[in-house]
Structures are given as C-alpha cells and as structure tokens.
Design a protein that fits this description.
heterodimer; A: about 1100 residues; 22-stranded antiparallel barrel; 5-stranded mixed β-sheet; B: about 500 residues; mainly alpha; two-stranded antiparallel ribbon; about 45% helix; globular
C-alpha cells in the first residue's frame, strides 16, 4: 500500500511542478483611509485569475498577472473589500476604508468549506499562524494556551517532546477520549501518543507540524460546527490551514528563514527546609533517604555504608541548592526555511519548507531531548478555470529521549528523596562505588540521579508521512466537484532499557541494617515497533448561487475512512550486559513477544445547506449518517443533524460609529460517535495471572505449554453509538469602528449513551463489560473581548481577553454501581488511596480518599474537634470519603496583548486557571522525606494536635470526649508518623493540592528592521525577537510543590488526575531571527 | 445535483457491498469461543488458581496463623501481622479466583459436557469445588447460585453452608460420571491423560469439605462411606515440576517475595516467634526445611504487629526467612492433611488406635514432604497421640505441618480446631517497640499471642475469622450484604 501511495504522489508532484511564462507585473501600496497608515497582510488577488499575494509590513505589494486580468481585489479583515481597475497601469496605490460590517473574514469550516465568518451560526475562533509561531513551541498546541475561550490546553510535562492535551468545552467522555480531531488542509490526522515511565510522548499528528508552516488554526467547538466531520469530531475540531505558495514583495517567490536558540531552566521546584538533615525519627542514621534527623549543626559526620573499609564523611549542614545544582540549562534551537512562489502565469503555486527542532531539557546530558525534522510541500495547479489539482506532502521524523517519572531508580525520585545535607554535584563519577548502587548512601529503592541518567534508557523514534491529493472540477460556474484523498502514515519504534543491578555486598563491611543488594533488579529491555495509517476518500459536490436577495450554498458528500494500526513488542529480562546494550538479545531468562492489529472502517454520507437572505440572515442545515465497522452489524448506522441561524441585526439599524456590527447566532447539533474495534464480542487472550504486586506472575507459554483464557472484558452485540447533543447561542458585537469586539457564547452539551468499559462484580465471570451508559452535561459560557485601545499611524496596542466558565455534571450512572459512581483513575499505596470518580450529580472527577474524623455531634462542646487515638494521632476513617475536591477548574481565561511602535512589538500571553484540585505525589513525598518546608511545623518540637479530643466509650454505647493531652514527638516516632502515616493530620488529603495557576505563557519583544536598511541587503524583511516562555507562574498559596500543569497519568481525562514524580517545570528564554527574501 | 452524486456513490459503493466492507470487526489477535478447546484453557485456569492460592492466600494465611511475622523496615504486610484485612487488599485475588479461575473452569465444563468428556468434567469440577471452598473459608459467603452469569450483574451472596452443600453435590455428580479410565484434557497438575488421580484428588477434597463442616453438621454417614472407599490421593497434590526460573514462569510465592524479576526486592516475610519457638522447643527437623537461618546462623522469629522499624538491633538480617525457590510446589492437598483428617475422623467416630496410626502417618507424611527426618521423635516424645485432647495435638501438629506448605489451610484449621490457643503473654510484652527491648523467652511454646498493634475491630486474644468482602465486588454490586465484623466466624466454626 505504502509503495502505491508514494507512486501516486510522485505523480501528483510532477504534474504540478512545471512553470509558465509571466505576463505582467503590477506593484503598489495599500494604506488606511482613516489614518493613512500602511496596512500589511492585505490579500491582493487577481480577479478572474489565480495570482495572489499579500502586502508586506510597509503595505507594499507586487503581483504578476495574466494579460486577461483587468481588476485586482484587496481584502483585509475589518476593511471593505476593494476592487480596482488596473487598466494598463503598473503602479496602483489603494486606500481601504474600515468596514462597519466587519467579519468579512473567510474561515475554513467543516470538510474544507470556506465560509464568511459572518454567516456562521456557531463559534469558530481563528488564531493566526504568526501568533502560533511566536513562542517557538515545538508542539504548536501549546501556543494556543490562553488564546481561545473554552479551550483547555495542558502540556503533560515540561520535558522536551511531551504531548499536550487539548480539551474543548470540558470533559464529556468518561471513557477518556476527549481530544479534538485535528484536520490539516482537509485531511484528518491520527493523533497517536505513547506512554511510558509516566510520560506521554507524541508519536504523530499535531506534534509533528512545524509552526512556521501554519497559516492559521481555527477551533470549531460546538456539535453544529463539527457534525460534518463525523464520529471523531464529537469533541471538537481544530482545523489547520497551512501556508500555500505566494509571491514575494517584488518577485514571484519568497525565501524565508525563521529560527533561533532557546535556553531552558527549571522554573518551579518544591520548597524545602534547610534546618534538619539525614535521619529518621529525629535521630541520625547513616542510610536514610530523608531529612528527619537532628538539627543541622555543621559538624563533620559519617554517612552511607562502610564499603571496603571506607566510608563517606561530610559536613552536616544544609546544601540548599543540592537539587537545583544538579539540573542544568538545556540549549535548544529551531530553524525553518521555506521557499514559496507562484508561477508567472499564476497557474502554479508551490511552497516547500524544511524545519528542524532540537530541544534539550534541564537534565544534564541529552537524556531528555527532542529532535524533529519536517519537510513540507504544497503545490497547486489550476490548469483551467474549471480544473484545479492540488497536493500536499509532509514528512516528519522525530526522536524523543525521555527521563522517566516513576518511583524508584528514576532521576526525580533520587532528587526528591535526597537528604538536605547531602551534596549531589560531587557524585558524577560513576566509577566510584559510592556513587552507584553498590555503596550509595541509601539502599532504600532510590539511587544516584547521575547513575539513573546514565543507565536508564527510554527512546522513541517516529516517522510520519501525510498529505493529500485533491482535484476540483467546476463543470459549471456554480458547482464544484471535489475528490480528495487524504493519507496519514505513521511508524515508530520504542526502546526502553532498565539496567540490571546485581550486587553481592561482598565489599560491604557494614550496611546499617539494610544491604545495598536489596536494590537488585534483573533489568530488562522493552522494544516495540508499530505503524498505523489512516486513509480518507472524500467526494464532495458544492453548489453556490444567489437569487436576488437569497444566497444558497449547498454541499453533499461521501467520506470513506479506514484506520489501521499494528505493533509488535518484545521484552526480555535478566540482562547479560547490565546496561547500555539495549537489544532483545541481551536477555538471559525471558523473552515475551506480543502483537496487535486493529482495523476499522467508516462510511459517512453528509450534506450541508446554507441559505442566506439579504446578507443578513443565514440558515444552515447539516446532516450526516455514518456506518461504522466497530458497531454491531445491523446496528451500525447512525444519523445526526444540525441547524444554525445567524442574524446580522445591525443590517437593520442605521450605520453608526457606536455599534458597528452585531450578530446573533443560534445552533443546535448532534454528533454521533462509534467505539474502538473488536468490542462487540467476547474473546480469548493468552493465559496469564497476576500476583499481589507483580503483574503477569504467570505468563504463558509455561513449561512448553500454551494456554488461553477468556478476556475479562465482555463484548456487547447491543452497542449503540454515543450521542452528543449541543445547543449554542451567541452574540458578536463590534463597537467604535471595530476597536472593541465582543464574542459571547452559551452552550449546553449532553453526552449520552457513552460507550464505556464498565467494571462489574467479578463474580459474574467478567471484570468489565462494554456497555452504553451515563450522561454527562457540560454547560458554560465563553467570552472573548478584542480591543484596540490605541491605534495611530505609529503606535498600535491590542488587548484581547477571554474567559470560559464550564460546569460539568454527571447526569446519570448505572444503578449497578454502588453510589452511582465509577472510578476514572486512582492511586493506592499501602493504606493510602485516592480515587477520582465520575459520580452521579457531581462534576466528573471528584476526589475521594480516607479522611480524618471530627466530632460531628453538634451538641457536644467539642463539636468540630479532631478525634485522635490514645497516641494522640488523628483517627482516620476506614472508608474513602468525598475529599471536597474536583479536577475541574472553576473558570479558565486568558489575555493576549501586543503593543507595536516604531517597528518594535511587545506582546504577551497570559493563561489563568482558577479552582479545582489534583493529586500530587510530590506533595506527599515532601512530607514523607521530611524535606518539605511544612515538616518544620512547630520547629519539630513536640506538640499536641490543636482542638483534638479522645473518645471515651463507656461500653453502653455512650460516647463522650476528653481533651487530648498526648503530645506527638520525634523521640517515639509519633511526630514523623503524623506526617508519614496520617498525612499531616489530613490523611489522604496530604496528596491533594489546589490546581489553580496563572502563567505568563509568553512575553516577546520583536523588532522589524527599518525597511531602508533591509532593502539595502536585497531582503524584504528582517525581524529579531527575544522572548520568555512560562516567564512567571503564580500558584495557590498552599501549593509549595509543583507546577499544577504537569501530569504523569496520560494526556486526557486520566491525566487530569495528577502527578506521580513529575519532572520539574521549565522556563524558556529564546532569541529568534526572521529573514525574508 | 443528484445526477452527479449517484455516479460517485456508484463508484464508491458499487464494487463491494457496504455490508461486507464494514464486516471487519473480528479481532485478528484473539481467538473466539469456537476456536478454543478445553486443552487450551485448562492450564490457564490452573495457573490462575496457583497464583492466588499459592501466593496471596499463602502469605495472609501465614500471618493470620502466626507462622509469619514482618521483617524490619518494610511494611508491605504489616496490616496482616496485625490481623487486619481491608476490602481492597483481596480485590485482585477475588477477581482472579472468580473471573479467571471459575469462569474459565466453567467454559471447560460446558465444553466437556457437550462432548461428554467426563474425565475433563471431573477435573474442572474438582478445581471449581476447591476454589469455591477456599472462597467460603476466606470470606464466609460468596455468590454461587447466581454467579458466573453476565445476565445478572448484581448476583446475591449465598450463605457458606449453601455453597458447601452445592459444591459437595457437584463433586458427587462429577465423580459419578467419571471412571478411572476417563480421559482428561491436558493439565499441569497430573499431566496424565486419565482420571485416576483426579478421582483420588476429588476424594481427598471431599474429605476436607466434610471434615470442615463436621463440627456443625452431621456428616458421619458420608464420611463413613468415603473413608471406607479409601481412595484418597497417595501423593501430595501440587503443581510441581512446572516452574522455570523466569519471570512469569516461576513458583508464585517465590516470584512475589524472593525473585528480583519485578525490580528491587524487599524483605517482608519472616518466621513468627510463635511457630519458630514451638518448633525449636521440640527440636523439629522441619525447621530447616521451612526456614532459613539468619545471618548469624540461627533460627529467629519476629513478633506479630510490628516491623521493628525503629530497632537498631532487630533488623532484616536478624530474622529467618521462609525457604523459597523458583520450583517450590504449590500444594493443593497434601497427604499429611488427608491423614490428619483421618486421624480426627477416627478419634471422633472410631478407635483411638486407628486415630493414632493416622496421626503418625500424617506427621511422617509431613516430614516426607519437607524432606526432613525425625518424625518419630515428634509423635513419640514431643507430641504423642492424646485421644482425650485429640484436637489439641492434631491442631498444633497441623499448624506446624502446614507452615511450610499450605499456610491458608493452617489459618482455616486454627479457626476450626481452635488450637494452638492464645496464651496470656502479649506481643507488646515480648517486644517493646519504644525501647527496643526484645524478650523472646516470655513466649510460651505452642500458644498464640495478641499482636503488638492489633486490629481494634477484632480485639485482643482472637484469631481473625474472615476476610472483608472484596472491594472489586462491593463497589460494583448493590446486592453485596453488609460487611460482617472481623470476629464473625464462618459457618463451619462451632
């Protein structure tokens, strides 16, 4: 298939590649009629031809047009479109007047249809490519943060290559797929990720798009807007339009370079104490992995085991920056070169770009790094006015090295469990046994981070080839027939290596109670090779016409979609070479092989009609019917319609300078969704069994016998498609000649009949059943305010603010679940557990954990007091209870601003998330190790829990309370237990933090060199910029621990749960140069 | 417009029908019901049973019967050593025993019934009965009459006596259908193609079931008949010789607690002072077979209810760990157990001399299983037969015999026979956590003691009587009864 595909495309490219002779050139300048200022970015189009260009920063343009063309059209957002007769002139100066009825802007909507924004009855937010490229983020979705109302962007980690979660209008799907569909130039992309060691890395899709290739991104939020895209669009669509071939300033091609260098440093770190050092329960121990020891006094002290009659000695004083000193500055850079042009006759356009990204994170060495190369080609050939052929080919290759987040021998655990008096920077020499597990100062499961970096291995390589071939035929002027073949092919390989530790303690003279050999691990190599593809065939017929005061735009189409994925993985244990040789042949004792294939097909029939009346009232009707292979045959067809109405009510009032534009919109739509393949029947899997701690403690084949067992997940032949229903109402207003714009929306979306893998009582013989159930509602408002407070010839200041409030409610749950709730994600260790539930009547993602007990009798004089036991420790409930925290933010918002004057532009983007809670293992770890600042409570002197009572039960059921007088103290371990076992009195809440934050995502200062300097170099533009990403972060007052954006649990719903050992967040300083020829 | 669309549709759909184009929802990686055979499923069901019964049940049984204590530093099973069980602790095991063991055995039974393959039917039924008995013995009650039916996602729990009556009937029915020459599908337990050994195993199991209820039900007639038949397993019924020293292929208890396959190892399970001092006092030859010497070459047991975490002296190298190896068998029923049951049967219903003979045979068999010598000294000098106190001698010897073999059964028999009894000394007296003062000499041989920190819902001087219903059931099934107190005995306890 792949070969055939490639041939097809070579042909496509050849067809488009030829060049034609030019006819004539016209140049000129476009200015504003209001203030005479030049307008850059104005689209200049040859009427009746295909040539097009844009004005540069000075408002000048140059265009080659065929002799037949006599008119040029000038288009710019907020200005009236002008058509100018050029006659035989070669110079044309044009003044554009500001358009009171703005929003003439064209946006790309479903199935690649372009529509004037004013006709839309739903919310579609467009973000320009320039704004996306500004922060130089390797993953472009990160550049959307704070810019689109109702869009929740969460980078799963600050580490290079980490995937980003994008959720539009709240989490609706309990089964955990809430990511939007990404469509590039009409072609849906796969969005594959791979998760290992607490990191989600991008395998393909949005993560592989070079920022400089993007013309614009449009976010379609509601069901009415997305229904035409079918089943995968139920969670919104992000449409990406890439740059096409265009002319340069005074030539018919442009060469552009954009690139720079960036420096990463740690931006957020747990606050640690510097008063106490290594030890446990207040006494010094030589091998502890925590700072519960005596007060640091600067004396010389031994520590660690005695190895070969040697022992470490150091000054018992705080190494305040022992962790920070370990981390370094990661140097990253990116380069993008593009070559773009139009043939002289305007029939051919082409755009070719190459971009390279190389990121290095804050860990020493390049064990945390990301590299990506992309090549993009777009070509179009308009052979006649009734025939156009266009194609795109994109190739991307990416490599990610991950420093994993996990408990044990990870770098991060080694850092956080380091006593405050132990220095790390002198532990680089890994030939020294004291710096390796052999005689490291602690054998309690953690190790030297330098050793971890050198010995743990996690590399992901991926390649992606995607694009399209499209033919448009216009048999008559009003009708366009389109065939589009879209393809997206992805392959990847993953290698994860865990080193073997095989110690015999032969040279250990004294281990102080716990031998280093307890660190022994067999080591393993995990290798996985996979590939996947998606093919789309779209047949579309679009009809546009107008009759008197009516306009009609109609489209019908067929979409055929096929998706396939396969992977094989192998794992081997008991390494012959302890480390470094990450190959399956390295395993002595075990080799597992496993494979998976999955294929799905979908056929969709779609239709769309927009009726316009008098340029004022627009009615849009859409409908789609899908047939999906993943649903039971005979029940695999589902239909979903939508309707929107848009009313430009300002058409009815006289033109005025106060209210320049006003639109009311209403939309109702449905979207249906299918499910994953192979869920309609029961199946068997190769035999396995679990232990308590070890999974697959039995794994067939065993003893040369193979076996199979029933899959614990029962399929269902009665599955129905999921359905979303969404109502949306909104208003667009523009005031004071478009200086102030407001876009407000209210929506109410209900996701019902969710296809979910529901846990059932295993007594039924199954652990889960695939079933339809549950209803989740997301209801909210979105506000977008665009202002231009200052606009003069020399100075312009824009300020945009957005706000979204989403209220999520689980409306129904199956009765079989006790309390009507289902576990979305959880953590449990020992006697601690934190669950995140979807519970009926509550917002999705309610946290439950064990809570301390209080006196609940309102008649007691001790009402509200903490109940403690005989030792004076908090009494903790035996059942998990509602912790009063939810994963959802109360509101999210953002602000972007830019101030331009004299060629200088200062811009900034702020992203605010308020409210909500999350799980944080880092918080708990800071208490466990005694490294956290909170462990200085009462200066670690004995204390009695304030307002606490002990229960006195007289045996006859009469309960009274007595004031607690039992102090907690280090000497009998109760002080430390208070933190370790009783969660600082909060029990399981010791894992929960407020997830609020405000981030200054980006602040950029850019400068375009004056044109006369530039011209002297034959270039058309030179711009330089300096920026800081994640410049500042403000977090909740009691969050002394982490940047709440980080997660280790996935890049969707489960990722909202929180973090276990997430690597620290980064700040990036960058410098960039843009040169255009 | 329609004119233009129809040709398009014809191109798309004309060549193949829509139906067959979409009929691709067969998982190429998973065989379906029609493909699998009893031969293919049987070993998987067996290994699931082995992984739970020979591991999780072994470990908690060892702690609850004071054969095991917790080592220094780690706290993985500290709650067990305090006679505590939470609903989440046993969730995975409950899931494994029900959905993986019982359900897959049910598939085998269905296939065997269809093909009238009564040897295989007996084998699957025997393991099913064994599993149900273990579930009742652990939890007291469990879904049985409404279980394994996906049409009912909220099965009611049945009383233990109901389940016992049901499985006994099932066993009798299966035994009546199979003959020694009936063929049995491929299995790890016996490996032989005929039902001879499965019939013996089923008889031993039947003896275990009848004896377990013998103090609360009159089952003398059934016992008389069964004993008269005298067709019990003549060798220990165990998964032996199927293990390899690899992750996923070694004996489960070894993998979980001793192997390095799953990352760093932690030392959790050590000998309990109660069992250890009792064995050492009688110079029992099985000590060295069941436990390893500590770093100083001595046998030392720990104390229930602590992990010595603040101790400077009693650290991980101070105590004796169980002996484990990758190929250690997972025992289902040993000859010693059968003989102990027969001794009890004769002591209650027959002659003392028959009882004594079986008592001696039981201890001989236990030494034989352990590969140790000195059985005769135990039953002649240390713990001679005592008809008047037969439950005490059987109880203590069974406790010792099962300590290195089948700790879960030891916990069951402790609850039923009520021997060894609790002495007056407590764990807190034996070891003072506050000042690291360890006085092993206070322990009285052949007794149990209250753990240092004990499950407060259970109270002092008591054995934990049951496991709390598993969270994987309680959180998903509205018909699960209220969790009973930890001190509420299962039905067969008198």
């Amino acid at each position: 298939m792949k070969q055939r595909l490639l041939c097809f495309f070579m042909l496509g490219m050849l067809l488009i590649g030829s060049a034609y002779a030019q006819d004539r050139r016209i140049s000129g300048r476009v200015t504003s009629a209001t203030d005479g200022a030049p307008i850059s970015g104005v689209s200049v189009l040859a009427v009746g031809g295909n040539a097009a260009t844009q004005t540069d920063d000075l408002g000048t343009f140059s265009i080659n047009i065929p002799a037949s063309v006599t008119q040029l059209e000038f288009r710019f957002l907020g200005y009236t479109t002008a058509r100018v007769d050029v006659g035989s002139q070669t110079m044309v100066d044009v003044q554009l007047t500001e358009d009171a009825s703005a929003l003439d802007e064209v946006v790309v909507t479903a199935m690649g249809i372009t529509r004037q924004e004013k006709t839309l009855g739903y919310s579609a937010t467009k973000v320009d490519g320039e704004e996306i490229a500004r922060a130089r983020n390797s993953n472009i979705t990160q550049s959307l943060a704070g810019k689109v109302a109702g869009l929740q962007i969460q980078s799963s980690a600050s580490d290079p290559g980490a995937a980003t979660s994008v959720v539009i209008r709240g989490f609706g799907s309990i089964n955990g797929n809430n990511q939007p569909l990404y469509v590039v130039d009409g072609v849906p992309l796969q969005n594959n990720t791979f998760m290992s060691d607490g990191r989600v890395n991008s395998l393909s899709g949005i993560g592989n798009i070079a920022q400089d290739d993007i013309e614009s991104m449009t976010v379609l939020k509601g069901a009415a807007a997305t229904a035409l895209y079918g089943s995968r669009a139920a969670r919104g669509v992000v449409i990406i339009t890439t740059k096409q071939g265009s002319r340069g300033a005074d030539r018919n091609y442009t060469i552009e370079y954009n690139g720079g260098v960036q420096f990463r440093q740690v931006s957020y770190f747990p606050e640690m104490q510097n008063e106490f050092g290594q030890g446990w329960n207040g006494t010094q121990t030589y091998i502890e992995n925590g700072s519960w020891g005596p007060r640091l006094d600067g004396s010389m002290q031994l520590f660690g085991p005695i190895w070969n009659n040697q022992q470490l000695i150091h000054e018992y004083s705080a190494r305040e920056n022992n962790i920070r000193d370990f981390l370094d500055v990661g140097v990253s850079n990116n380069h993008n070169v593009s070559f773009s042009g139009v043939s002289a006759d305007g029939k051919n356009t082409y755009y070719v770009s190459y971009s390279n990204v190389s990121d290095d994170g804050i860990m020493p060495t390049d064990a945390d790094s990301y590299g990506r190369n992309t090549i993009a080609y777009r070509g179009a050939y308009e052979g006649a006015d009734w025939f156009k052929l266009s194609s795109t080919v994109n190739f991307a290759t990416a490599k990610t090295n991950t420093v994993g987040s996990f408990q044990g021998t990870s770098v991060i655990d080694g850092l956080y469990e380091l006593p405050r008096d132990v220095s790390l920077v002198d532990k680089k020499d890994l030939s020294n046994p004291f710096n390796t597990p052999e005689a490291y100062f602690t054998p309690y499961g953690i190790t030297n981070p330098y050793w971890s970096l050198a010995n743990n291995y996690n590399q992901l390589n991926s390649k992606q080839l995607y694009g399209k071939l499209q033919a448009d035929i216009k048999p008559i002027q009003e009708l366009t027939l389109t065939y589009r073949f879209g393809y997206d092919y992805n392959d990847y390989d993953v290698k994860i290596g865990t080193p073997e530790i095989d110690l015999d303690d032969a040279l250990i003279n004294e281990d102080y109670g716990y031998a280093p050999s307890n660190m022994n691990q067999t080591g393993n190599v995990y290798a996985r090779y996979g590939r996947s593809y998606e093919l789309n065939h779209d047949f579309l017929a679009a009809y546009d016409n107008s009759f008197d005061r009516f306009t009609l735009a109609a489209m019908v189409g067929v979409n055929m979609n096929e998706r396939y994925s396969t992977f094989m993985f192998g794992q081997t244990d008991g390494l012959s070479f302890d480390t470094g040789f990450w190959d399956l042949s390295n395993g002595a004792t075990r080799s597992d092989l496993s494979e998976t294939q999955s294929k799905r097909r979908l056929i969709g029939l779609l239709g769309d009609v927009t009726l316009g009346f008098d340029e004022m009232l627009f009615l849009n009707l859409t409908a789609r019917n899908d047939w999906s292979s993943t649903l039971p045959i005979g029940n695999n067809s589902y239909f979903y319609p939508g309707a929107t109405l848009s009313w430009l009510f300002t058409e009815l009032i006289p033109k005025n300078d106060i209210l320049s534009f006003g639109k009311l919109r209403l939309a109702y739509g449905r979207t249906g969704a299918d499910t994953d393949p192979y869920r309609t029947m029961n199946s068997y899997v190769q035999g396995f069994a679990n232990g308590y701690y070890g999974a697959d403690i039995a794994a067939f084949p065993m003893n040369n016998v193979n076996a199979f067992q029933l899959n614990g997940r029962a399929g269902s032949i009665t599955l129905r498609p999921e359905m979303n229903r969404e109502f949306e109402a909104g208003v667009n207003l523009m005031f004071l000649n478009n200086r102030i714009g407001i876009d407000a929306a209210f929506y109410n979306r209900i996701t019902s009949d969710q296809i979910f893998v529901l846990p059932v009582d295993p007594s039924t013989g199954f652990t889960n059943i695939v079933t339809n159930f549950g209803e989740v509602r997301n209801r909210g408002i979105e506000l977008l305010l665009n202002t231009t407070p200052v606009r003069t010839e020399k100075i312009r200041w824009d300020l945009d603010v957005n706000l979204a409030i989403n209220r999520n409610t689980v409306l129904s749950m199956p009765e079989s679940l006790e309390g009507g709730r289902v576990n979305v994600h959880s953590f449990s260790a020992g006697n601690d557990a934190v669950y995140m539930y979807a519970e009926e009547g509550r917002p999705m993602g309610q946290y439950y954990t064990y809570l301390p007990k209080f006196v609940t009798d309102p008649n007691s004089e001790y009402y509200g007091y903490r109940i403690v036991d005989a030792d004076g420790q908090p009494v903790i409930g035996t059942e998990v209870e509602d912790a009063g925290m939810n994963m959802n933010h109360k509101w999210i918002g953002g602000a972007t601003t830019s101030l331009s004057a004299f060629g200088l532009t200062l811009s900034a983007a702020l992203d605010v998330r308020y409210g909500g809670g999350m799980f944080s293992r880092t918080k708990n770890l800071m208490q466990f190790t005694g490294n956290g600042i909170v462990t200085l409570y009462n200066d670690r002197r004995p204390f009695i829990i304030p307002n606490s009572v002990q229960v006195i039960d007289d045996g006859d059921g009469n309960i009274t309370y007595a004031e607690n007088t039992s102090p907690l103290k280090l000497s009998n371990s109760t002080y430390q237990d208070y933190f370790n076992k009783f969660g600082w009195g909060d029990a399981g809440k010791a894992y929960l933090i407020d997830r609020s934050y405000a981030k200054l995502r980006n602040i950029t200062l850019s400068y375009s060199l004056p044109a006369k300097w530039v011209r002297s170099t034959r270039l058309s533009n030179i711009a330089v910029s300096a920026f800081v990403n994640n410049a500042f972060i403000w977090t909740a007052r009691d969050n002394h621990y982490i940047d709440p954006e980080g997660t280790t649990e996935g890049a969707d719903l489960t990722g909202q749960f929180g973090e276990l050992y997430v690597n620290p967040a980064n700040r990036i300083y960058g410098f960039n140069v843009n040169v255009r020829f | 417009m329609k004119k233009l669309i129809i040709p398009f549709l014809a191109i798309v759909l004309g060549t193949t029908s829509c139906e067959s184009y979409l009929d691709i929802n067969q998982d190429p990686n998973a065989p379906s019901e029609d493909n699998v055979t009893a031969d293919l499923v049987f070993p998987a069901a067996e290994m699931n049973l082995a992984s739970s019964y020979g591991n999780f049940f072994r470990i908690l049984g060892g702690y609850y019967s004071q054969q095991y204590a917790h080592s220094f530093g780690t706290s993985n099973y500290l709650d067990y050593s305090q006679f505590t069980i939470s609903a989440t602790r046993s969730s995975g095991t409950y899931t494994q025993l029900t959905s993986r063991v019982l359900k897959n055995l049910e598939i085998i039974r269905e296939k065997a019934t269809e093909s009238e393959d009564w040897g295989t039917y007996l084998a699957a039924t025997t393991l099913r009965v064994f599993t149900y008995q273990a579930l009742v013995d652990a939890y007291g009650e469990t879904p049985y009459t409404e279980a394994l039916d996906l049409a009912n996602t909220a099965p009611h729990y049945d009383e233990g006596a109901t389940v016992y009556a049901g499985i006994l009937a099932e066993l009798n029915d299966a035994l009546s259908k199979a003959t020694p020459s009936s063929t049995v599908s491929a299995n790890f337990l016996f490996g032989t193609p005929t039902a001879t050994e499965w019939i013996q195993f089923a008889n031993s199991l039947k003896l275990k079931i009848l004896m377990r209820v013998s103090k609360v039900q009159d089952v003398k007639a059934e016992l008389d008949q069964l004993v008269a038949e005298n067709n019990f397993a003549t060798e220990d019924v165990s998964w032996d010789d199927v293990w390899t020293n690899e992750s996923g292929k070694a004996s489960p208890f070894f993998q979980e607690e001793f192997a390095t396959y799953f990352g760093s190892t932690q030392i959790n399970v050590i000998a309990n002072i109660a069992l250890m001092q009792t064995m050492l006092a009688s110079d029992d030859g099985r000590v060295g077979a069941f436990f390893a010497k500590n770093a100083s070459g001595e046998y030392k047991g720990g104390v229930s209810g602590t992990n010595f975490s603040t101790s400077n002296t009693y650290q991980s190298t101070y105590f004796s760990r169980p002996i484990a190896s990758y190929n250690m068998p997972v025992y289902l029923i040993t000859v010693a157990e059968t003989e102990f049951f027969l001794a009890e049967y004769y002591a209650r219903y027959g002659s003392s001399s028959d009882a004594e003979a079986h008592y001696q045979a039981a201890i001989e068999a236990s030494f034989n299983t352990a590969g140790a010598t000195g059985a005769e000294d135990v039953y002649t000098n240390q713990y001679p037969w005592d008809q008047a106190n037969y439950e005490k001698v059987i109880g203590i010897q069974k406790w010792i015999a099962l300590s290195g073999v089948n700790n879960f059964e030891a916990w069951c028999e402790l609850r039923r026979l009520k021997y060894p009894e609790f002495g007056s000394v407590t764990g807190a007296q034996i070891y003072n956590v506050g000042n690291d003062d360890f006085k092993p000499e206070l322990y009285v041989v052949g007794t149990l003691y209250t753990p240092i920190q004990v499950n407060s819902d259970l109270g002092a001087g008591k054995i934990l009587q049951r496991l709390r219903y598993a969270e994987s059931s309680t959180s998903r099934n509205p018909n699960v009864p209220a969790t009973k107190p930890d001190s509420a005995p299962v039905f067969w306890v008198q």
